[in-house]
Amino acid sequence: MTKGQLEAEISKELTQWEKDFLGRGPVMVKTDILRDMVIVVLKGLLTPAEHKLSETTEGLLSIKRIRADLVEAGREKLGEIIKEQTGEEVIIFHSDISTKTGERIMVFKLSADLEQKITS
């Protein structure tokens, strides 16, 4: 499998995870493999109500906290998806959502340099 094919497959699997676990999928997903990291940007995640709520500081913080808790609750499955697709363990996971743009970024740090393995 090429790097591009693997990135596309990871995007597809994470989109499905969003739909199955959170009940709603992103409008667009882009995955990039860089050294020992898988970086995923998901766009179009916030509902119209969340966009409205994010107009206040309290609402913005509430959305970020709830969304972070939801992703953390599914953290184990996310690690399994990445391991199944890449063959590498996830050793660190970071995620944040922008209430301004409705984008989430996920960074999976792997146990080995996946990019080097793929391109070798």
TrEMBL record:
Residue ranges occupied by any Na+-translocating membrane potential-generating system MpsC domain in the UniProt entry: 2-111
Domain of life: Bacteria
InterPro entries cross-referenced by the UniProt entry: MpsC
Name of protein: Na+-translocating membrane potential-generating system MpsC domain-containing protein
Pfam families: MpsC (PF10057)
